[in-house]
Amino acid sequence: MSDPVKEIVPESSAKDQHDYSSSSSTDGDDFRQPTNDKSHLFGRQKPVHAALGGGKPADILLWRNKQISAGMLAAATVIWLLFEWIGYHLLTFICHSLILTLAILFFWSNISHFVNKNPMEFPEIILPEKLWTQVALLLRDRFNWAFALFWEVASGKDLKKFLYTILALWIVSIVGSWFDFLTIVYILFVMMLTVPCFYEKHEDQVDTYAQKAKKELKRQYSHLDEKVLQKLPKVPFVKDSKQQ
């Protein structure tokens, strides 16, 4: 009695089948792998440098150019100390600075002939019209946006936005009672030079805590809405005179 014929599978076919199954499983795992849907602070989708506008301003805020960033921070600190501790007034500070600058340039221009030095060449300073036009247009757009936002909040159509605005203004009023205007400006300037750099280095941790704080605020607002806001009498909107 003869042995049954055994079907022999070639090694190459088995290997190809194994490779195909492995690649298919790998592709399936890659397809099933969830994408990174982590939300960033303020709904940001771009990197921090691009979100700040890029270019030199973003480099200064993120300390990519440490000399300029440190120089601006030191100058702001010196000005704040002069006005707050020494008691300088703005007009006095400007006049004294101009007197010192004019005296140095005047004496250097006169004594340069005696010390065999070339006289100082004063650069011609012309402010570019395009730059100031862009600044004026930017300020105009910001003011228009602020006025539009004010009337939108005051219209009474969005209670949530109204409460957020009142809370923000109340917090600003409390902070304003603690410091004078110059100190607040200095604190904001220091925050501009430190917070973006700190956030870029600890982005994941800050985003995690921000998400937790956002969830807690939503929970508190839903609790307030359920206990207080929904029980308030609803005021109907005024209809048009034609409909009346």
UniProtKB/TrEMBL annotation:
Per the annotation, which location comes first and is thus the protein's main one? endoplasmic reticulum
InterPro entries linked to this entry: Reticulon, Reticulon-like
Membrane-spanning residues: 67-83, 90-111, 163-193
Q: PROSITE patterns this protein is in? A: RETICULON
Where does the Reticulon domain start and stop, copy by copy? Answer: 57-244
User: Which residues, by range, are in coiled-coil regions?
Assistant: none
Membrane topology term reads: Multi-pass membrane protein
Task: Tell where it localizes.
Answer: Endoplasmic reticulum membrane
This protein's record includes keyword Nucleotide-binding: no
Keyword line: Endoplasmic reticulum, Membrane, Transmembrane, Transmembrane helix
Q: Which GO terms describe its biological process?
A: response to bacterium
Q: Where is this region: Disordered?
A: 1-36
Cleavable signal peptide: none
Provide ranges: composition bias, Basic and acidic residues. 1-19
Instruction: Tell me which GO cellular component terms the UniProt record holds.
Output: endoplasmic reticulum membrane
* Name listed for the protein in its UniProt record: Reticulon-like protein
Q: Name the species this protein comes from.
A: Solanum chilense (Tomato)
